[in-house]
Structures are given as C-alpha cells and as structure tokens.
Amino acid sequence: MSEEIRKQRILIVDDAPENIRILAQALKTDYKTTFATAGAQAIKFAMSEEPPDLILLDIMMPEMDGYEVCRRLKAEHKTKNIPVIFITAMNQEEDETKGLDIGAVDYIIKPFSMAIVKARVRTHLELKRHRDILENLSSLDGLTAIPNRRRFDEVLQTEWRHCMRESSPLSLVMIDIDYFKNFNDTRGHQAGDDCLKRVAKALANSVKRPMDIVARYGGEEFAAILPKTDRDGAVFVAETMRDNIESLNISHPNSPVAGYVTISLGSATVLPDNRSDSDILVKAADDALFQAKREGRNSIRGIDLN
C-alpha cells in the first residue's frame, strides 16, 4: 500500500496499560496504533519490517527507561529518523531539556490534554511524511525509479548489522545485462534506456518481501539485497529474475547468447559477524557474477561463504 493512502503507524510505549488504552482509543480512528509495555519490546517493534512512523514514549519504566530507549533508537540507522514524543509525569525543566537533547521531537507532561496530544502528533507525522517523500526521491535512480547506489549502500550496512544481531544469513545477488554495449550500439541509446527501465521493473517485481531490495548498482548492473536468506533461497530468487527477464523478450539481435535480452547473475551468502564487513559479500557476489559471465552468460553462479 502506498505511503499516501495507508494509515500512519504510532507505537505507544508505557508500562501502565490504562495510559496505553486512553491514547490508543483517542488515536485509533486516524492512525494504526500498536503498543509496548517495556523498552526492549519497543526497540524490537521499531526495528521490525513495518516500523512505526512515530513513537509516544513514557520515561519512567522498569528495566530500561524512556531516555535509554530513545538513545538506542537514535543510535541505529534504521530507527534514528522515527520521531519520538515523550509523554511523562516528569515535569522539571531539566527533564524536558534532557529528553530533547537525546533526540525527542517533543515533550508532553502528564496529565495531558488529548486535543494537544492529537495536534502535536498530527504535526510531527505530517513533517515526517514530507521528509520521507524527500528521502525517497533522493534514494531513487533517476532513470529506472528503483533504489540507487546510495540507497543500496545504506541498506546493505543496516541489514549487515541486523543479520549479525539475529545470527541470520544475508545474501546478495549481483546482476548484469549481457552484452548491453552491443545492444546500445545496435538499437541506440533511447532503446537502451527503455531496456534498462523494463529490466529494472522486472527485477524489482521478482522479490516479494518488504525487506528485500533491488537497486541499480551502476550502468547496466543491478543488485538485490536479501536478508535472512540462505544460498538456496538466493539462487531461487536469482533464477526467478533470470526467467522474468527472458519473459520480457526484448529483441537483442547483436547478442552472442540469444536473440533477446538476457542477464547473468552471481549470488553470495554469509553469516555476518564483527570480524568482517559487507565488502566481503560484495566481492564474493562480484566473483560469482564474473564466473557466470566467463562460463557463457545467461546463467547463475552462487557462493556460500559460511
């Protein structure tokens, strides 16, 4: 569902169920609300595949207080831009100053006026919506309208850390259009641009999970980041991509491989740890792609680094 029509999500964090009930009742008509009664649970929700657009956060909670929750959220690339509004009975000036210094966008003191809460929530969600639109535009490739190299680099680093925390495999598929220079030389650069757009759309439609991302890596090269995916899963996605590009049946009379556009793919899988970084995954996927091209193209090669 698009950002423009879906209900924005609010996470309410409070160890008092009655406070959660009051806020959820008032906000549920306009927003999708969920709740957490502890700091660790709130962070887990924020790191999920469907993170909240805004967090209403109590400060005084057992085990992990709201200040520490906010610090941890702001320290993570995936959650640092989620606006946090403290709602708390702590009414001293130094309390509010501390909360805002940590990174909260607002500070509401209990007992609160529900009209004020609604107004501030509406304002900060509207600001976030505009920031998200600008962020999305800056993260998209101008020709193909899929994520660009900058976005690819950001997501790869985020998913590396996420999979390392969860001891989950991370896979990367590198994709190259076979003999694309010949295509441009034969059919012209306008046809080349149209080909890139159709290939990008077909590749993006080949992945189904929200966590997966297909990006334009550069020129006629694309890349797919597949979190929580083992080698067999990555090869399956790669084969789906190869089939989908063949199904486009884009004429390529100057290709030594076939009379239509084809792709070569290299996949690599690793279990991330703190002894290495994502560069080894990129290099391995590149090596696998080189092998697929060297051994005839229109094919897939996979490497498991585990």
Topology:
Elements: E1 9-13, H1 17-27, E2 32-36, H2 39-46, E3 54-57, H3 66-75, E4 84-88, H4 93-102, E5 106-109, H5 114-138, H6 149-166, E6 170-177, H7 180-187, H8 189-204, E7 213-218, E8 221-227, H9 231-248, E9 263-270, H10 279-294, E10 300-304
Parallel strand pairs: 1-2, 1-3, 3-4, 4-5, 9-10
Antiparallel strand pairs: 6-8, 6-9, 7-8
Helix pairs in contact: 2-3, 7-8, 8-9
Give a short synopsis of this structure.
With 306 residues, this protein is of the alpha/beta class.
Question: Please, could you describe this protein's structure?
Answer:
It is a single chain. By secondary structure, the protein is an alpha/beta fold. It has 2 domains: 9-138, 3-Layer(aba) Sandwich (Rossmann fold); 149-304, Reverse transcriptase/Diguanylate cyclase domain (Alpha-Beta Plaits), CATH 3.30.70.270. The protein is built from 10 helices and 10 strands. Strands 2-1-3-4-5 form a 5-stranded parallel sheet, sandwiched between helices. A 5-stranded mixed sheet has the order 7-8-6-9-10, with helices on both faces. Helix 10 links the parallel strand 9 and strand 10 (300-304). Helix 8 (189-204) crosses helix 9. The longest helix has 25 residues, at 114-138. The radius of gyration is 23 Å and the shape is elongated. The mean pLDDT is 94.
